[in-house]
């Protein structure tokens, strides 16, 4: 709806009216006496221009398709049509003035008023806001505000459109989008967090979604990287069986079927993997099937476990039925409080029925078991079964039975706990017992013979359980036979790493892998090996033995056990070790000697030569060569049996001393050498040990030394006279180098050395080090007034006075430069340093050396700066000098004839 532009209270002024207005104005200016006529004409002009504003047309607004609200420039409502009343819930009378704002939602009122304010600035805004009805109903509207200029008391009109239904639809769509987003996030979370492969396909067999586990499985099985929108039918799987099964399963579920099936997937490696495949159709919100979902759960291990369990059960039943022993599987019966109250038969083999005379093949009650056990005088076995079930500890006991038909029979009763009961095994050991009793008489004699043996003897059966342990073994290993027989194995005496190393050695010799439970001693016994071994005593110490292993055979030449015979070889081993050490030491000594050492047999052949001999004689190896090769000038030797003795006689060498000989090396060079000879007995044979020392260089050195001695004696005679003079001159130079030439006290060079030394000493001892810088007040004026010679005399007196004021041996004074002096006071704290400086300053004043040009006194005075530190390693000692120098500057700056302590922030006179 369009409204005319807003008009002012007057018509627009045209050029004619403008001309009239100008003419009237000129008339006023030039004809002031005619002003009443002029006023009349002006009033007439204004009346002619004035026209009333029209009133708005209500009928047009009532017929409008929009809800309309008219307001003035102050946002006061002038009119609303019926559509506006329906939207807002307010009548025309209720909306007039400020009443229309009551219909607007409180949260939107401020925005609406801002919209009206913007209109006054020429902005035409559009806004969406809410009406709040008295019954709580909310109505959304879209508002556009337009100015109105052609109607009296109307500034603008607001046109509104109902948006409630549109907003409702938008809200519903937003909620639906949020729900879909949540469902998507939940789906992605489930897919990503699940270890089970999950995939979905659409109706065309194309993958719509899958998790990483599914992609990994497909790649591991078939080497295919699954991608979304890929069609399963296009994949060429390495296993045609797998492809056929998967296509058939997906086809069934895409036809609407839902099922779970266990299937093996083979993959490229042809290793079957068992999966539980769960297939279900996928529907949209309309109930239409849009695809299918497959979840795979790997049950390979559980399937293998089930098969192994089934096989184990079958083997268990077969073992029970085929066993020659009586076997009873007893299942525990518990009350409501899970307390054991009884047992009942779960499994019984045929021998079990025969042994207890159980004629019924049905599961007999526990009462029959108690009755049957009482017939063999072993009624207490029921209580034993209960204890084994509750504790889990295996029970095994041999028992002689005296019941009817079983007199003199021995049985081995074994009870082992299982998850829901116990297994009772009864073995007939009568024959073994009778054999043991028959051998009992002989065993005493046998034991006596074995106990008298000096070697430790240990016998085991085929299960490696100890059956015999003689007294020598008890003494050697610290165990009693009663502790070990039928209870332990020889592994108790051996170190596991050593036994493992021997197993590895046997495997290397045999060229094949031995079983994990292979026993090293049974293998050694079968191979008839005698070797050194290590035994471990009961107290933990180890010792070497010579161990011989043999098999024990019965009358049928069958192996029934193993016997080990051990002898302690600790003494022999110690001797061998000592001999080996001596040999190692001897070889090391020979290798390190610079002299030649040769061992020679009686036949004159060299047995061994040390590295020095090989180097001197230029041979790679001398073993097996004749000793005459090194002494060819001896001529032809006649003796063959004792050629070495003949060579030594020709050389003039014996065991009583050292002789000089001439040897020749491989290049033919003669070598003058000292030879010493020794004879040792090795296995009743003479071995000659020759030691040769090269004298060539020694002779040359002696000659050169003699010449040098003669020359030195001549030089020494000429130098001895001037040495004493030079020494005295050096001492004087050293003294003068560290003393100040004017004052006679230490100079700057000696101060630098002393400061470094005292700083290091204080840092080590943790003591304080004090330093004071002293300066003669106004000394330049003194020199200018009295002259430099008098000034030098003044400095000498001051230096002597400072030196006399120091009483400790470690205190040090030096001339630092010009009229400055420095004190080093080791082991002195701040109080001690102040006392020394005060004494120095006072004694200098008492010299009463006249100084009329001084501003502080009529005599020569000193100013001082004091610094005290605890030296630390790594800190420059001149930091102390700088601190004292700054303190001296403070003393001068604050009046002189005083001292200042660094860090004290005060002047002290």
From TrEMBL:
Q: What superkingdom does the record give? A: Bacteria
Domain GGDEF, chain residue ranges per copy: 767-904
UniProt keyword list? Membrane, Transmembrane, Transmembrane helix
Whether Nuclease counts among this entry's keywords is no
Q: Does the keyword Membrane apply?
A: yes
Task: Cite the PAS domain residue spans from the record.
Answer: 68-116, 449-487
The chain positions of domain PAC read 529-581
The record's annotation in CDD domains points to: GGDEF, PAS
What parts of the sequence cross the membrane?
20-48
Query: Mind listing the GO biological process terms from this record?
Result: regulation of DNA-templated transcription
- NCBIfam families named in the record: GGDEF (TIGR00254), sensory_box (TIGR00229)
What is the official name of this protein in its record? Answer: Diguanylate cyclase
Task: Record the organism.
Answer: Iodobacter ciconiae
From the broadest rank down, the organism's phylogenetic lineage runs: Bacteria, Pseudomonadati, Pseudomonadota, Betaproteobacteria, Neisseriales
């Amino acid at each position: 709806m369009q409204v005319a532009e807003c008009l002012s209270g007057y018509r627009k002024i045209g050029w004619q009216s403008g001309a009239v207005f100008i003419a009237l104005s000129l008339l006023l200016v030039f004809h002031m006496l005619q002003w009443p006529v002029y006023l009349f004409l002006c009033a007439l002009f204004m009346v002619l221009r004035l026209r009333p504003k029209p009133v708005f047309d209500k009928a047009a607004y009532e017929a409008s398709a929009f809800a309309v609200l008219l307001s003035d420039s102050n946002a006061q409502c002038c009119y609303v049509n019926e559509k506006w009343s329906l939207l807002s819930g307010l009548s025309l009378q209720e909306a007039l003035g400020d009443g229309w704002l009551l219909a607007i939602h409180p949260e939107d009122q401020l925005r609406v008023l801002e919209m009206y304010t913007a209109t006054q600035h020429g902005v035409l805004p559009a806004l969406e806001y809410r009406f709040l009805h008295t019954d709580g109903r909310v109505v959304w509207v879209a508002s556009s505000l337009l100015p109105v200029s052609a109607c009296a008391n109307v500034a603008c009109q607001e046109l509104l459109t109902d948006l409630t239904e549109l907003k409702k639809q938008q809200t519903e769509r937003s909620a639906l989008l949020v729900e879909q987003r949540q469902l998507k996030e939940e789906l992605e979370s489930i897919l990503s967090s699940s270890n089970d492969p999950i995939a979905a396909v659409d109706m065309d067999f194309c993958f719509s979604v899958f998790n990483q586990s599914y992609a990994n499985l497909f790649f591991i099985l078939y080497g295919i990287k699954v991608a979304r929108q890929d069609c399963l039918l296009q994949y060429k799987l390495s296993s045609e069986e797998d492809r056929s099964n998967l296509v058939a399963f997906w086809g069934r579920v895409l036809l609407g079927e839902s099922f779970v099936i266990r299937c093996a997937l083979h993959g490229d490696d042809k290793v079957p993997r068992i999966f539980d495949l769960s297939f279900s159709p996928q529907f949209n919100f309309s109930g239409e099937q849009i695809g299918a979902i497959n979840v795979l759960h790997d049950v390979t291990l559980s399937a293998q476990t089930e098969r192994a369990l089934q096989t184990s059960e079958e083997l268990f039943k077969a073992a029970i039925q085929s066993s020659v022993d009586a076997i009873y599987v007893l299942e525990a019966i518990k009350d409501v409080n899970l307390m054991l109250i009884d047992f009942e038969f779960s499994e019984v083999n045929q021998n079990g029925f025969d042994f207890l005379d159980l004629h019924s093949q049905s599961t007999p009650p526990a009462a029959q078991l108690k009755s049957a056990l009482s017939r063999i005088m072993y009624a207490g076995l029921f209580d034993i079964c209960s204890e084994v079930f509750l504790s889990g500890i295996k029970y095994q006991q041999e028992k002689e039975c005296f019941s009817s038909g079983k007199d003199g029979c021995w049985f081995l009763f074994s009870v082992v706990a299982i998850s829901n009961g116990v297994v009772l095994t009864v073995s007939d050991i009568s024959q073994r017992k009778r054999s043991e009793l028959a051998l009992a008489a002989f065993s005493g004699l046998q034991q006596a013979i074995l106990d008298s043996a000096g070697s430790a003897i240990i016998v085991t059966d085929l299960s490696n359980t100890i059956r015999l342990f003689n007294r020598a073994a008890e003494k050697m290993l610290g165990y009693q036979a009663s502790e070990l027989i039928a209870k332990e194995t020889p592994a108790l005496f051996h170190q596991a790493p050593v036994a493992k190393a021997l197993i590895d050695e046997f495997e290397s010799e045999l060229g094949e892998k031995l079983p994990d439970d292979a026993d090293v001693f049974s293998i050694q016994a079968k191979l008839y090996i005698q070797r050194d071994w290590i035994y471990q005593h009961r107290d933990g110490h180890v010792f070497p033995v010579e161990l011989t292993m043999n098999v024990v055979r019965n009358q049928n030449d069958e192996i029934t056990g193993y016997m080990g015979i051990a002898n302690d070889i600790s003494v022999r081993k110690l001797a061998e070790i000592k001999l080996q050490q001596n040999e190692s030491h001897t070889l090391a000594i020979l290798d390190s000697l610079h002299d030649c050492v040769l061992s020679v047999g009686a036949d004159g052949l060299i047995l061994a030569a040390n590295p020095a001999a090989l180097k001197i004689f230029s041979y790679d190896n001398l073993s097996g060569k004749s000793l005459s090769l090194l002494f060819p000038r001896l001529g032809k030797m006649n003796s063959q049996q004792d050629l070495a003795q003949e060579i030594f006689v020709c050389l003039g060498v014996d065991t009583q001393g050292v002789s000089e000989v001439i040897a020749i090396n491989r290049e033919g060079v003669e070598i003058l050498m000292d030879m010493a000879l020794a004879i040792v007995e090795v296995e009743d044979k003479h071995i000659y040990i020759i030691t040769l020392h090269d004298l060539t260089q020694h002779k040359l050195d002696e000659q050169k030394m003699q010449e040098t001695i003669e020359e030195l004696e001549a030089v020494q005679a000429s130098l001895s006279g001037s040495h004493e003079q030079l020494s005295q001159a050096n001492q004087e130079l050293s003294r003068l180098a560290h003393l100040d030439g004017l004052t006679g006290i230490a100079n700057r060079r000696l101060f630098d050395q002393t400061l470094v030394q005292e700083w290091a000493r204080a840092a080590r001892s943790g003591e304080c080090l004090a330093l004071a810088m002293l300066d003669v007040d106004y000394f330049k004026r003194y020199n200018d007034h009295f002259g430099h010679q008098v000034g030098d005399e003044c400095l000498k007196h001051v230096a002597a006075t400072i030196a006399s004021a120091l009483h400790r041996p470690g205190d040090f004074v030096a001339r630092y430069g010009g009229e400055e002096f420095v004190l080093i006071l080791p082991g002195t704290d701040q109080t001690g340093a102040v006392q020394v400086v005060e004494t120095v300053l006072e004694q200098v004043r008492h010299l009463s050396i006249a100084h009329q040009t001084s501003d502080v006194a009529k005599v020569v005075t000193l100013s001082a700066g004091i610094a005290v530190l605890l030296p630390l390693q790594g800190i420059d000692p001149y930091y102390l000098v700088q601190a004292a120098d700054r303190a001296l500057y403070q003393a001068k700056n604050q009046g002189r004839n005083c001292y200042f302590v660094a860090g004290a922030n005060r002047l002290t006179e």
